[in-house]
Design brief:
binds 5'-O-[(R)-(carboxyoxy)(hydroxy)phosphoryl]adenosine; 358 residues; 12 strands; 2 domains; Nucleotidyltransferase, domain 5; binds zinc ion; 12 helices; five-stranded mixed sheet; 45% helix; alpha/beta
Length: 358
């Protein structure tokens, strides 16, 4: 706790994130102040493998987490005694990394006699728009990251209804795998977006590199991306013999982004209808969260769709879209204020669906 100038108490929480390849710690208050948010990306460690290697990730978290936590506490100009609670990602994710962050969180909580809060990484993404914007429940949530693709209704803290998910690859994964086939560096998503911007003949791009929209028009709200990825591979194989020209890559990347955007729009339209009909929200809002929310083409199309349906559209700032400790601290805070905290024998969960018990 700390006092404001008006002598009001402020709640302060430390959040730890280690579920994938970002080692991060952050201090956040219930007044929505991010006092610190230190993020170390292990890009170099995984780059040569073209993807995250779980054992290397876990070791890197182990090597750096202490320093990252210390930096987060120093940057926030507090000490551990001032914390009200300690939150850590306890799943879903790569179990080695999750264990490192969870154990560090439990140790700090035990040593300083603070409550421990086990946070679902997906709830961290899901609640971020309440930290950055004053979004009220219930809101429609599109969660799109490297490991997850879900359409949910966020009804309350700890309460989510899943409307659709992917039956094969996640959208971020489709970006990353397609980018890799195009010879782009890891992680592929942002590189694919960048090279698509260099496409100077949209019409030709769509004609030369047509791509499917799997499940488009189906009544459910699920996604399937593996067919799209295969179609990208087929185009690249057809070009074999010729060296892959930059112009081809930028056109294929453009066509890929348009296909993904079409697929998302089609699925989300159904979700909007259901959300409005079943929940009759006073202030209907569509939120996009997760790393892929950084993609401007996707965000632009969701903005237009929201306008058309008289809804607010919220996408958190880039730094808070991808994995970070502030989202975990904030989710911890929201849970703590609701009276949730966890015992120190809480077990890490490699799989932990948001619409289950959280
Ligand atoms: O949420 P996140 O940081 O980590 C997971 O929990 O997965 O998301 C990372 C994913 C990666 O697949 C990355 O390529 C993708 O988000 N991504 C993007 C963009 N920036 C990050 N995908 C498309 N366009 C982008 N600009
Ligand atoms: Zn994530």
């Amino acid at each position: 706790m700390r006092h404001t100038q008006k002598n009001k108490l402020i709640m302060i929480i430390l959040g730890i994130e280690t579920s994938c390849d970002e080692t991060s710690a952050s201090v956040v208050t219930d007044k929505k102040e991010i006092l610190s948010n230190i993020i170390l990306s292990q890009l170099k460690e995984h780059e040569i493998y073209g993807g995250v290697v779980p054992e290397i990730a876990a070791r890197a978290h182990l090597d750096y987490l202490d320093k990252i936590i210390k930096a987060a506490i120093n940057d926030a100009k507090i000490d551990f005694a001032k914390l009200d609670a300690v939150a850590a990602t306890c799943g879903p994710g790569l179990i080695g990394g999750v264990m490192v962050g969870m154990m560090a969180g439990k140790t700090i909580a035990a040593a300083h006699k603070k409550p421990f809060i086990a946070v679902n990484h997906l709830e961290g993404h899901a609640l971020t728009p309440r930290l950055t914007n004053n979004v009220e429940f219930p809101y429609l949530l599109l969660l799109v990251s490297g490991g997850h693709t879900q359409i949910l209704i966020a009804e309350n803290v700890g309460k989510y209804k899943r409307l659709g998910t992917t039956i094969d690859d996640a959208i971020g994964e489709a970006f990353d795998k397609s980018a890799k086939m195009m010879g782009l560096p890891y992680p592929g998503g942002p590189h694919l977006e960048k090279i698509a911007l260099e496409c100077n003949d949209y019409h030709k791009a769509l004609e030369k590199f047509p791509l499917p929209r799997p499940l488009k028009g189906r009544k459910n709200m699920d996604f399937s991306l593996s067919g799209l990825k295969t179609a990208v591979r087929n185009h690249i194989e057809k070009l074999e013999g010729e060296t892959l020209k930059k112009e081809d890559i930028s056109q294929l990347a453009y066509s890929f982004q348009i296909a993904i955007t079409d697929i998302i729009k089609d699925r989300i339209k159904r979700a909007i209808d259901l959300y409005k009909e079943e929940y009759k929200p006073k202030n209907p809002t569509l939120v996009v969260a997760g790393g892929v929310a950084a993609n401007k083409t996707i965000c632009k199309s969701l903005t237009e769709l929201s306008e058309k349906h008289n809804m607010n559209f919220v996408a958190p700032p880039l730094k808070l879209c991808t994995d970070n400790g502030a989202m975990i601290a904030w989710a911890g805070l929201e849970r703590f204020k609701k009276g949730y905290n966890n015992n120190l024998d809480f077990k890490a969960k490699p799989r932990w669906p948001l619409d289950g018990e959280i």
